[in-house]
Every structure is written in C-alpha cells, then in structure tokens.
Amino acid sequence: MDREQIKEIIDEEIAPKLRADGGDIEFVDIEDNTVKVKLKGACAGCPMSQLTLSNTVENYLKSKIPEVEAVKPVQ
C-alpha cells in the first residue's frame, strides 16, 4: 500500500472537511493495512471523533484504497 497516496488523500481530501468544523487530522503510519492517524484541533477529545473516524475517514479511505482494513487514532 502506498503511504504517499494515503497521506495525499488525508491531506487533500479529508483534512479540509474536518478543518471546516475546527478539527484536523494527520497521517502517522500504516501497519498491517491499518492506517494510524492523529486527530487534532476540535477533533481531539471530541465525543464524536470515533464516529468521524469510522463513518467518514475509514469509509472514504476504503472506497479509494480497498486494501485499507481500518483507521485507528493514536496520541
């Protein structure tokens, strides 16, 4: 799986949507088809952040890169 492609999708397609609501997301790593991200801004500590990760970030990445199995937050 191409790290640069994942980073580009997060930076250019997902992050701007989160920034519109005061949040942000940063690509950290990929391990065993699991993308690790850091939530920032309003997303960090938000009670809805897990829902955002699974329903928005994970589903979007899976639609673009079928090899992605999961998206997990890291501190």
Automatic annotation (TrEMBL):
| GO biological processes | iron-sulfur cluster assembly
State the source organism's domain of life: Archaea
GO terms, molecular function: iron ion binding; iron-sulfur cluster binding
**Known Pfam families for this protein?**
NifU
Q: Which residues form the NIF system FeS cluster assembly NifU C-terminal domain?
A: 6-71
Xref: InterPro entries: FSCA_dom_sf (IPR034904), NIF_FeS_clus_asmbl_NifU_C (IPR001075)
Which protein, by its recorded name, is this?
A: Fe-S cluster biogenesis protein NfuA, 4Fe-4S-binding domain
